[in-house]
Design a protein that fits this description.
Layout lengths: L6 E4 L2 H13 L3 E6 L6 H8 L8 E7 L6 H12 L3 E5 L6 E4 L3 E6 L2 E5 L2 H17 L1 E2 H24 L3 H8 L3 H15 L4 H10 L4
Parallel strand pairs: 2-3, 3-4
Antiparallel strand pairs: 1-7, 2-5, 4-8, 5-6, 6-7
């Protein structure tokens, strides 16, 4: 059983940087899994401010819906150009940061847990590595998402307006089958099982 000092509860991002920033500053390997660009925004800002001469291996896995947002896609391309290994997952992932395989930081609602218990960290690392292996290099998504990003804003507006499929298809200037195919593609990327859920997930991802 882990000792109390091996699991620290952190209230918010500010406290996370204050109490765990030094761990990132001294790390050689940084691995991150996130559903969107918001969960670890403070830690990412802190990482950008570290001395550029440091050799830090960075691996990041994001949910596919991040690629729907042009700003999100551009951010991931920038990370890749700066040397980070970026992959995209089609499945929900445990939002995690791993530092040198010795420290795990878990998103826990509005707060975070910093874990240093070796057995727990190894288990969390195994989950990350499984997500990493089953994900796809970001570059492979670019062609697919280039078209999807173009019509996503209008498609989301039409879905939220309650328009019939026939009316929405006419508004987009496409056939009914094409419209329904695009809706299905969008739902697939968002991980939604219904159009209502697609709207909720789009709002959560900042697309609406």
């Amino acid at each position: 059983m882990p000792r109390a000092e091996e699991i620290a509860n952190i209230r918010d991002e500010r406290e996370l940087v204050e109490r765990a920033g030094h761990l990132l500053a001294g790390a050689d390997e940084f691995a991150c899994a996130a559903n969107d660009l918001h969960t670890w925004s403070a830690m990412q800002k802190f990482a950008r401010e570290l001395p550029k001469e440091r050799k830090l291996r960075v691996r990041k896995v994001y949910l596919a819906r991040v690629m729907l947002d042009p700003a999100g896609a551009e951010h991931l391309r920038t990370l890749h150009e700066l040397g980070a290994e970026v992959r995209i997952s089609d499945h929900e992932i445990n939002e995690t940061i791993l530092l040198d395989g010795r420290v795990a930081i878990l998103a826990a609602g509005p707060g975070y847990n910093v874990v240093t218990a070796p057995d727990l960290v190894r288990g969390i690392s195994s989950l990350f590595e499984a997500a990493w292996r089953s994900s796809t290099a970001m570059e492979a998504y670019e062609t697919r998402f280039a078209e999807l990003r173009q019509y996503t804003p209008q498609l989301l507006d039409l879905l939220s307006s309650g328009s019939t499929d026939e009316k929405a298809a006419r508004a987009m200037g496409v056939g009914l089958r094409t419209y329904r195919r695009r809706v299905a593609e969008l739902m697939d990327v968002l991980g939604a099982t219904s159009r209502f859920q697609a709207g909720a997930l789009a709002r959560e991802a900042g697309l609406l």
